[in-house]
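Lab notebook: predicted structure, single chain.

Context: the supervisor wants predicted structures on file for every construct in the current expression panel, including those that have not yet been purified. This is the next one on the list. No modifications to the sequence; it matches the entry in the shared construct table.
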Amino acid sequence: MQVRKAVITAAAPNQNRIPTQQLVDREGKDKSALQLILEEVLSCGVEEICMVIRPGDQRSFEQAAGDLVGSVRFVEQPEPIGYADAILRAKAFVADEPFLHLVGDHLYLSASEISCARQLVHVASEFACSVSAVQSTRENKLPYFGIVSGTRVPRQEGVFEVQRVVEKPTPTRAEQELVTPGLRSGHYLGFFGMHVLTHDIIAALEQVVADKSLTKPTLSDALDVLRARHKYMAFEVRGTRYNLGIPYGLLISQLAIALSGQDRDHILTELVDLLAQRSAVIGDGGRDA
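Prediction complete. Output recorded below exactly as produced.
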């Protein structure tokens, strides 16, 4: 299964500024978050990229894409009526092909020489089905991620056959319905923000978007429909996802990138100095009163 296309969603009301934020990459070069996301996508052989955005945001995204803008086309989601609807806006773009899907407010750092996207595409090609990247996720992070449960595939490291998909479950529901054998207590398989989806997802997306009982249908809703009809897997990527949309998300992402790059020693020195200065201020508190 060849994956030539990718869809990036960045149409939620709080997402339009995140991909334009500036960071410093592992080599010390200034780049926007969008450039880093596009580099991740292109690392796995993708040739065409569609970004789903809000009306009026195209110019800022074109500027943020820099010299990679030639690989991107834009589709608008007129109203913020849900994640599932946002992906459906790219239906004509993906046609009947499988596609890589990423969210526009996450960055990814691989723990190997192979990018996270390339790892995922390799597994999807091997199993010839939709595969979601997942990461072992602590219970306190449940409000931020879709969660899957499944059974491990024998002789396939980190691969699971998905049995349930729930968007941002409560801790009680997760404990009752979404435990995956083999994970540490209090940990669940949380979405990584990256999926390879076959054309089968389109019918599932259309079904949940048409479901009037769902206020803002999500991709998780569609994937739960998909897993009941077709083979659907999850893969524990060797890497880490960083959510730019949570408090201090941009700061934590930048620190993670810096500590994995050429300026690691410099950043560590600066952090030690910062902590020492802070400790000194706290230790001197009240002396000038």
